[in-house]
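**Backbone shape codes:**
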Amino acid sequence: MEKRSPSIDVKPMKNYKSNFEAHCKEHRQRISTGVLALDKILNGGLANELYIMGAETSTGKSAFMMSIAQNIAESGIDVLYFALEMGREEFVIRGMSAISFEHHRNNEIEQQMTTSDILYWTYDETAQKFSKTPYSVYERYADEYFQRFGEHLYIIEGGTLGLAVKEIAEIAISHKKQDHDRLVVVFIDYLQIIKADPTDRAQSDRKTKTDVAVTTLKTLAAQVGMPVVVISSIGRSNYNGRISTSSFKESGDTEYTGGVLLGWNWSGVTDQDNKLLRESEKKACKERGFRQMTLDILKYRNSERDNSVHLKYYPAYNFFEEDDGSWSVKNESQVPLSEGKKTYDFTKKKLS
């Protein structure tokens, strides 16, 4: 049987000139993340590209991604946030907590509410019983949350059966088709929880499943036309070391397929292999109420990499603010330890 040639349109480049000119003159909007420092190093914000952020567990990666998603939704752009790990209620409560802290930072007379204040029961030693904060105490934060983000933010839970990447793509494409001019941003929290497609026998191992997922999401971003932002966990062998492109190696071809790779680091903790220093920094963070976070650009096709965004993260309130990064370990020779009694000299690599 004669083998058919692939249906590929082969033409000289002179035939492409008019298409190229039209493409260059087209005003393609980039979408602001709401974080100016991040927008600057992303050349104006998010484009129709696949962004993958690698992070250790319990470092605030979901909180940061949701804060960006909320910023975008508040600007009037549709955000599809695929919550494959946490449910809608927890994300809403986290957002309400951040709003309460935001009012406090603006010197407004508002009661701050931590996530646990709203989500959990507390034990009253005097009354010797558990109680839950009444809804009326934080109702104004709920009202503001839904007023600011409710119209354009879609939190899509994975459900008991989970979601395969094909299902995620179909949901995003269907939403886009309702209005072809509509701007849509997709967030996936997170890559490793995407379910293997039961109809694809090749996805029997984790690496192949991940390769299929990132390739599909890359196609969704580039060909359908929407930014896709994905959180990726990293292998435990990469813990306690600053996240680099090699941290993605255990996750299939993520390192090569992602257009923009981001590394999320808790300064003094996830980038520190000295246990004493890690514990000291965790204690200091608890005492001052915030962590010092750095988001590194590890890979960025056709633009500059090795740029960083410095942030302060208040975990009790899921609140982030930009910082100048003057606290960064790489800019200091000494880091104070607990109660300021000792310091670790990075030039001599010893306590003093």
About this structure: Confidence is low (pLDDT under 50) at residues 329-352.
